[in-house]
């Protein structure tokens, strides 16, 4: 059963929460008149366009068109859901929330999860304390010193060290009342049966530096450990449990989700140290998979924040192949995928140390699209292709066949032709022959894509559908090319409704066919269902787009000093435009009738237009 907080309590939390105070914890705000200005936390900008209005308890960015109330801000900034956000603000204001009624099974599951989180939090604290305070943590401190990791970074990532003991963590957590059986269930110790039927336990992580895997709420969900000698395995992760699946998490996401939104793309690295090095040097959008091949679940996690990923894996052959596999998964999920190959360096950590931040930034700007990176990988792998222009005809045909499935999956026709022209220049073939080669129905292409022509038609149709969806999803960012009087009138009426200056019931006789803009109609329909006004009406809106649009309308400069007169004038403007549109439709119909030879019908419509114009003059 879904947990719902009573609306009256949500409203109390909202009214007692000062939006300026809350946002100031995340954004540096400066007062300007009645409002506060700052740099937007949701996109990169140098000139402040992020506005907070205490009078209305709302925020709006005139750069990226994101807006809403105090709940919306925290949900976007912290990646919390609505209930988590209300809980946080209620706790700050000392407001008690009712407990959710749980089934016995749900209660048992919740109890296990809380215990699991508690155990992992204590384990994180133990490993961290050993690293920064205990004499036995010196090997770990020496390792991080050698990698250029300072104390501040160690604390930010809650890094730790598991001493070279069989029972270090076991004893530390047993002193807190945690049984060995619980630690075994959490995957932190290993159970071993001895002869005679007795059972013993020992620490899973020993003589390893520890990387706490944190979620976006800063909670430890698992651990990764790296050995300090040549023993195997080099890296060891927490095992799969009821509450931890490494294929569902990304290392560094506890900080990176905000950086990804800020930069507009994610940097996908391979290792823990790569992420730490990248974030330490200002690339706060860096994450890594947890020692396994990238999964679609990890892709979906990235999809919450961006559609653009730059892969920066190790430059050895294994890293290149892993980049191609990850790129294929992300590309098939609809991401724009670029791959950065770092020459003369094993990984991003090493490159940053030897070449510096500015050179890395320059390299990042030269990251290659997935298809081009794959092309150069193919070229380097075959000695006969050292000079593609002089390669044999069969070799050139083989290159085109290998890349055909990837190019055919590109839905954008402009991008697809760009790759075709790229191959044309690289291989010294005409564009037409490249396109024929890609569309050729060879066995491999048939097997992977079925009928190519039908597939392309399907892709084009799918692309148009995605474009339409994208336009709808981002409609709050775009206004009509010409803002007509009717459009302004609709916005003015919504402003009066949001401010509570006219009741929603005023429109009961007019709302059918009143709204020309579909987003305006959605906001109005929400207001009809809501019992609150102003930012309270933004609660539980169906989408961020509606919230942002409503916030934009609320912060527009409007003279609303005479709401009743203004409302009537807006209705007249909308009605007048509807009548004008109807006359235009009649005129168009007359032309059609004349073309078809139906002069009688055309004369009848002409008389109707005359009558309407006369009545309008009166």
């Amino acid at each position: 059963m879904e947990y719902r907080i009573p609306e009256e309590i949500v409203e109390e939390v909202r009214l007692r929460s000062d939006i300026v105070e809350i946002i100031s914890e995340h954004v540096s705000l400066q007062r300007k008149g009645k409002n506060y200005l700052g740099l937007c936390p949701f996109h990169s900008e140098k000139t402040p366009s992020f506005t907070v209005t205490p009078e209305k308890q709302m925020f709006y960015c005139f750069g990226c068109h994101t807006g809403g109330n105090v709940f919306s801000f925290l949900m976007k900034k912290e990646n919390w859901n609505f209930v988590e956000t209300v809980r946080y603000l209620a706790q700050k204001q000392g407001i008690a929330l009712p407990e959710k009624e749980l089934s016995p099974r749900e209660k048992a599951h919740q109890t296990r999860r809380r215990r699991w989180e508690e155990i992992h939090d204590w384990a994180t604290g133990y490993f961290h304390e050993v690293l920064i305070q205990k004499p036995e943590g010196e090997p770990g401190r020496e390792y991080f010193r050698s990698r250029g990791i300072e104390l501040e970074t160690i604390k930010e990532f809650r890094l730790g060290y598991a001493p070279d003991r069989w029972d270090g963590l076991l004893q530390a957590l047993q002193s807190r009342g945690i049984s060995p059986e619980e630690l075994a269930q959490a995957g932190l110790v290993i159970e071993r049966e001895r002869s005679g039927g007795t059972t013993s336990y020992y620490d899973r992580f020993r003589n390893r530096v520890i990387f706490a895997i944190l979620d976006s709420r800063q909670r430890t969900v698992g651990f990764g450990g790296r050995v300090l000698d040549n023993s195997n395995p080099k890296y060891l992760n927490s095992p799969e449990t009821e509450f931890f699946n490494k294929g569902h998490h990304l290392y560094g996401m506890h900080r990176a989700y905000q950086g990804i939104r800020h930069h507009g793309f994610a940097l996908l690295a391979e290792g823990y140290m790569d992420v730490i090095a990248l974030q330490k040097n200002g690339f706060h959008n860096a994450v890594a998979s947890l020692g396994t091949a990238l999964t679609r679940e990890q892709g979906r996690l990235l999809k919450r924040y961006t559609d653009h990923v730059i892969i920066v894996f190790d430059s050895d052959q294994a890293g290149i192949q892993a980049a191609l596999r990850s790129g294929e998964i992300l590309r098939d999920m609809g991401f724009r995928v670029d791959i950065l190959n770092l020459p003369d360096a094993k990984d991003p950590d090493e490159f940053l140390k030897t070449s510096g931040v500015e050179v890395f930034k320059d390299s990042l700007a030269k990251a290659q699209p997935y298809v081009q990176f794959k092309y150069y990988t193919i070229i380097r792998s075959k000695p006969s292709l050292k000079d593609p222009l002089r390669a044999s005809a069969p070799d050139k045909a083989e290159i085109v066949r290998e890349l055909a499935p990837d190019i055919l999956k590109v839905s954008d026709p402009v991008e697809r032709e760009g790759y075709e022209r790229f191959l044309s220049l690289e291989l010294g073939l005409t564009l037409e022959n490249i396109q024929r080669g890609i569309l050729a129905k060879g066995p491999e292409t048939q097997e992977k894509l079925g009928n190519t022509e039908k597939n392309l038609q399907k892709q084009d149709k799918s692309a148009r559908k995605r474009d339409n969806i994208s336009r709808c999803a981002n409609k709050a960012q775009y206004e009509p090319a010409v803002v007509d009087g009717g459009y302004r009138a609709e916005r003015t009426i919504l402003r009066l409704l949001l401010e509570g200056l006219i009741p929603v019931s005023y429109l009961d006789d007019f709302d059918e066919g009143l709204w020309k803009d579909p987003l305006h109609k959605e906001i109005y329909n929400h207001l009809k269902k809501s019992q609150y006004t102003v930012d309270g009406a933004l609660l539980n809106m169906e989408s961020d787009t509606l919230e942002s649009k409503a916030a934009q309308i609320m912060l527009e400069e409007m003279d609303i000093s005479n709401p009743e007169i203004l409302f009537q004038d807006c209705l007249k403007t909308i009605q007048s435009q509807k009548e004008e549109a109807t006359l235009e439709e009649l005129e168009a119909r007359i032309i059609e009738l004349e073309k078809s030879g139906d002069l009688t019908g055309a004369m009848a419509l002409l008389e109707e237009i005359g009558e309407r114009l006369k009545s309008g003059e009166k």
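Confidence is low (pLDDT under 50) at residues 441-483, 532-537. The domain at 261-269+276-286+293-375 is CATH 3.40.1360.10 (Dna Topoisomerase Vi A Subunit; Chain: A, domain 2).
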